[in-house]
Write a structure and sequence with these properties.
This protein has twelve helices and 14 strands. By secondary structure, it is α+β, with helices and mostly antiparallel strands. Among the domains are: 51 residues, Uridine Diphospho-n-acetylenolpyruvylglucosamine Reductase, domain 2 (2-Layer Sandwich); 94 residues, 2-Layer Sandwich (Enolase-like, domain 1). The strands form four sheets. It has a five-stranded antiparallel β-sheet with strand order 4-5-10-6-7. The protein has a four-stranded antiparallel β-sheet with strand order 11-12-13-14, sandwiched between helices. Strands 1-3-2 form a three-stranded parallel β-sheet, with helices on one face. α2 links the parallel β2 and β3.
């Protein structure tokens, strides 16, 4: 690692001010940032440690939504009674992230701010049409994810919480890398107030909606309808793990599994 300093703010306002004045990076669970620093892929001169900032962690029901604080750990989301009762798909998604150590350290906000192309949480946020609440505004899911490791967040803007609308039905299915458990392809399906939504992660440079499957499921909410929908390979990732054609096939297969799990 390169040398760096740590700032420990006592409030969101102090954290934002520290980011603005130092040009540093926010440190939540550190599961992505610290690894990048060890490999010298990231060289922040200052880390703004969010662990002591009150009000950033926690889970609550707010009307027809589940509100999850940015520094809430994956393991806490997986175990939360409120989440299991209202949106069990979120609990199942959180339970399938990484290994036990990653789940006990990694945070919702950190995963979203990093926007790894193979991360699971972006699929849930886009699939449920969630709202990302920051230190200065509310950002719709469709506007938050901009591309590979890129979001709508400003350099001195922090995620405070995420509002997840409670769906009629929802489920997440992924084909994970056996070593990292990142998604080679992950598919989140949901029946929402605005209609059927299908969000895909791991298959392209950033999370996206599979409109062909949404159309098929809007007509018939069945696993057969999902598996029969064709997904265009154009723009999908091709690497040593899977070709674009294979990922396109996986999207339909996993969508069908998710629909079956949702009921």
């Amino acid at each position: 690692m390169y040398p760096f300093e740590i700032v420990r703010p006592a409030s969101v306002a102090e954290a934002v001010a520290a980011l603005a004045s130092t040009g540093g990076r926010a440190l939540a669970g550190g599961q992505s940032l610290v690894g990048a620093m060890k490999l010298r892929l990231a060289q922040p001169g200052t880390l703004v440690d969010l662990s002591g900032v009150p009000g950033l962690a926690g889970i609550r029901r707010d009307g027809d939504a589940i509100v999850i604080g940015a520094t809430t750990r994956h393991a806490d989301i997986a175990a939360a009674a409120e989440v299991r009762a209202a949106i069990p798909a979120l609990a199942a998604l959180a339970e399938g992230i990484g290994d036990r150590q990653v789940r006990n350290m990694g945070t919702l906000g950190g995963a979203l701010a990093n926007n790894d192309p193979a991360a699971c949480w972006p699929a849930a946020v886009l699939g449920l049409d969630a709202t990302v609440v920051t230190s200065r505004r509310r950002i719709a899911a469709a506007d938050f994810f901009r591309g590979m490791y890129e979001t709508a967040l400003a350099a001195d803007e922090l995620i405070v919480a995420v509002d997840f609308p409670v769906p009629g039905k929802a489920a997440y299915a992924k084909f994970g890398n056996p070593a990292s458990r990142f998604a080679l392809v992950g598919v989140f399906v949901a029946q929402t107030a605005g209609g059927v939504r299908v969000a895909v992660t791991g298959a392209a440079s950033s999370v996206f909606r599979a409109t062909s499957i949404e159309d098929a499921l809007s007509a018939h909410w069945t696993a057969a309808a999902a598996s029969g929908a064709k997904v265009d390979r154009a723009g999908l990732n091709g690497d040593l793990h899977a070709s674009p054609e294979y990922r396109a096939h996986l999207i339909s297969v996993l969508a069908a599994r998710a629909v079956a799990a949702a009921g």
